[in-house]
Amino acid sequence: MVEIKFTAQKTNGQTITGSLTADSSGEAKRKITSLAEKNNLKILSTEKKSTFLYKAARGKEKPIRGEQKAFNKKEVEEALTRLGYTKFSVNKKLLDFESKPPVQEIVTFVKISAELLDQKLAYGEVLTLLINDTQNASLRNTLRDINNDLKKGADSQATFLKYQNVFGKFTAYMLGLASKSGNMTEIYKATAKFLERRQEFKKNLRSALITPMVTVFVLVAAVGFYVGYIFPETAKLFVRFGVELPPMTAFTLKLSDFLVENPWLITAFFVIPPVAFFYYSKTTKGAYLIDKYMLQLPLIGQLIHKTLIEVFCRVFYTLYSGSAESIEPIKIAAEASGNKYFEDRIKNVSIPLMVKKGVGVTEAFEAAGVFTDTALSRFHSGEESGTIKNTALQLANYYEAETVYKLKNLIEAIQIAIAMFIMVVMILLTLVSAETATVRPKTPGTSLDIQVENNIT
Predict the structure, then answer these.
(1) Which residue of 136, 254, 417, 436 could cross-link 101, Cys pair, CB 3.0 to 4.6 Å?
(2) Strand order in the sheet with 42-48
(3) Are 394 and 378 in contact (CB under 8 A)?
(4) How far apart are CA 382 and CA 262, in angstroms?
(5) Rounded distance between C-alpha atoms, residue 128 and residue 113, angstroms
(6) 342/166 Cα distance (integer angstroms)
(7) How confident is the model over 43-64, as pLDDT tens digits?
(8) CB neighbours of residue 240 within 10 Å
C-alpha cells in the first residue's frame, strides 16, 4: 500500500493539495489522473510518502536516532524543529521496504488491545503502550502512523483500511469499525478469537496435509536416488557376468535405467504440476474453482466446509444488530470466510434474494447451497424466535468443537497411513536387496564349465 500526495491547479488558478492511497504507485497515478480529468485539474506535482532516517539533538543532549514517514525531507525537519531539536540531519531511507508482520504478531496486538480496553484504558493509551512494546518494526511503524492519523482527527475506519495490506482486509475493517461502534471491546475480542481460530486451523491443516506431503516427497526422493544411482552399481555387475537376474531385481534395474535416461522428464513431472497449480490458484477463476472443489474432498472437505460456516457465524454474530441491517454483516462475514466459492454464493445468490425479493435469511442461505442442514435448521429456529444473533454464536461454538475434535482424529489417521506407507516402501526395498544378495555369478569349475571342457576334448 502506497500513499501519494498531489498538488493540482484549478481552472481559476487556485492551487489545491490532496492525498490518496492505493495498492501500488501505478494504481495511485491512475487514480490521480482520473481525478484530474473528472474535475478539470492540472496536476503540478506528486510525492510518495517515504521513510526518512534522522539524527537529532537538543543543545548538549545526547543525539537520538529514529525514522519517520513523510512526503518529503522538509516535513521531517519541520516536525523536529517543533519538538525543540536544533541540530539534526535527515536522509531518505535507501531501501524503504517493510515485510508484512507475522500473523501471530497481529493476533497478539488485537488480543492485548482487547484486554486493555476491557480494563477501561483509553484507546490512545492502548496504542501508545503497544507501540513501545511491539518488537516487529513493520507493525510498530504502522501503529505509530495510525496513532498519528487518529490524533489528527482522521476517520478510524478509513485509517485502518489504509493499512489493510498489513492487517488483512477483514481485520482492518473490524478494527476500524470498532473505534466507531459502541462495543469496541467486544469487537476486538471477537476479532482476536477469529484470528486465533483461523491461525489454529491453518496450523492443524498443515499438520494434516503439508507435513505428510513433505515426508512422502523426501521418501520418494531418497528411494529414487537409491534406485537410480546406488542399486545399479551392484545389479549391472551381475549383468556383465551374464547372470540371469531375478524378476524383482530385473524390474528395478529397468526402472533405474529409465530414471537415469530421462532426468528432465522426471523433473518436469514433479515440478511443472505444482508450479502450474500455484499460478492457476492466483487467478480469479482458479481460486474460485479450487475453493469449490476443496469442499468436496473426502474427509478434509467436510472439515473445511464446517470451519467456513463457523467463521461466517462468528463474524455475523459480532456485526449483526437487527434484521433491518443484516446485509452488510452477511457480506463482511462471507468475505471473512476466505473461500471464494463460499463468498460468491452468499454475495451473488443470498444477498440479491434478500434485497430484491425480500426473502428471509434462512431461505436465502438455503438457496446459496453452502450451508449444512444443521446450520439451516438452527437459523430457521433463530429467525422464527428472533434470536438469530445468539443462534449464530451457538453454531460457531458447535462447529468449533466438532472440527477441532475431528481434525485431531484426522491428523492421527494420516500419520498412521504415512507410517504404513513408509513401512511398505522399506519392506519392498529390503526384499529387492535380499533378492539381489542371493544372486551368485558363475565361477570356474561348475558343472556347466566341466561339460563344455569335455565336449571340446
Answers:
(1) 136
(2) 15-22, 2-9, 42-48
(3) yes
(4) 63
(5) 11
(6) 24
(7) 888 888 888 888 888 877 788 8
(8) 8
